[in-house]
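Q: I have 397 residues here and want to know how they pack in 3D. Can you give me a structure?
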Amino acid sequence: MALAREIIKDVYSVGAIDWNRRLFDALILLPDGTSYNSYLVKGSEKVALIDTVDSTMSEVLIENIKEVNIDQIDYIIVNHAEQDHSGTLPRILELFPDAKVLTNPKCKDLLINLLFIPDDKIEVVEDGEEVSLGNKTLKFIYAPWVHWPDTMFTYIVEDKILFTCDFLGSHLATSDLFIEDNIRIYEPAKRYYAEIMMPFRVPHVQRNLKKIRDLDVNIIAASHGPIYNDPSFILDLYDDWASNNVENEVIIPYISMHGSTEEMVRYLTDELIKRGIFVKVFDLTKTDLGDLAMAAVDAATIVVGAPMMLANPHPNVIGPIVLLNALRPKTRFVSLIGSYGWGGRLVESVKELLSNMNVEFIEPVVAKGYPKEEDFRRLDKLADDILKKHKEALKRH
């Protein structure tokens, strides 16, 4: 069913809502589905299509374009080559063989290698270059590493609309064209930031936020999720998430085989709460890793709970730790609690797995077997140490 919707005069949303998708990149859970946003711009002289959609939704895009009732597409703007935004490009070029693909050099190389787009179909645009559609002007702004090296933004100068591709998006399938409820969009937007943008927080997210702040923008239209007709909402959130400021929060991802580590987690959680620290606990046998990533956006401290298994941390702890290491949250402090039977490299292994994070390690608490009175006193000290570190970190901002 076709569903082309006008954003403002002669600018249309022609993308696809994917209500049923639940996994992205064979890794990221999508509890709310997603959308692949594509935008058609009718100028007085020429027509441009900004991004396409995932190949699974090709027919939806094609039907939506037909509904706008155009004879020709002159330019296809590719802001980013990843297939959820470019997958239908070959089909669109078949339907509109005279169209030119406009993109940047890095994206051109990716389109040739990922989708076999002919070299002579692609024209490279420079950072800051403008292309006229008649009464509408498209300006291209390079925005590398949010989240691939090829990303760029497209800005309609007269209408003050910024198309940011993945940047500032959200995995959310909704019938709303625009953000109607800031509370409803908050969690999908934060989850999206945590899973996709957080590794590039410094300097790339911060740098590209400044580029947007320097523009006069009335509408932000990303390639996933609904459109922001109040850009300050998402920009203010990103300013906070991408800053160096942390909150008085501890997250505790853990595994427990026979109850020893779980008892230590329970005790430490209670002690942290008594000290006025907000705590989120994640049993990794049940946790959606997107929830863990989202909680890591603001937390000052991560405490890993891990039992020893065959001289190393339990295997089900390793994956989430590796993920956190790759996401590189602004967390300041890390510690470890857990238990062992006869020995191994529990502490050393966790430190190595988190080597990508710029953090201070707080003295861990590792018990031999089930925790004893001495171990609980060490957990008391760990809670005190965390409180002290938080006070110092929060004072600095």
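Q: Anything worth noting?
A: The first helix runs from residue 58 to 68. The chain is about 35% helix and 25% strand.
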